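Q: What would this chain look like folded?
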Amino acid sequence: MRLHSLILFALLAVQPAVQVQAHLEQTLLTTVAFNSRTQRLEVVHQIYAHDVEHAFGNLVQAEGGLDNVPAQALVGVELGKTFKLWKLDGEEIPLALVGAELEAEFLYIYQEAGITAIPESMRVEHGMLRNYWPNMRNYLNVDYGAVIKSLIFSDNDGVKTITNE
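A: My prediction, written as structure tokens:
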């Protein structure tokens, strides 16, 4: 019985450290690609639902939780404002929110732009959830077809440039 109590105590003592550590590596993945079928630039953000729930807390709960469409729409609109693309000449690429959905442990936010190709060079601002957790890492992959280029946004990163060269 004493051994059982020691094991239980050890597990309980370790549990808070594991929970805290799980939030130290918050990440988000965004993919930008051109869909030749629809002739649109598509942006997909894959975010851990748990991180969204912590960031939006009561706002998400007031809409019935993240598995409800109104909560997904709220989060999609708010986070969509924190991701922007520009052509190298400074012209903003307007992104429209297409929707959001909860699938397993991830919330997906979909945006698109009516341009006919991915610009060879773009300026990118990726602030999603970084105002909640400055150490959060936002990964960006741009699929240029023959090659995928990547950027990582963290800390106080501002606008970055990505190029297909």
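The helical segments are 2-22, 49-62, 69-80.
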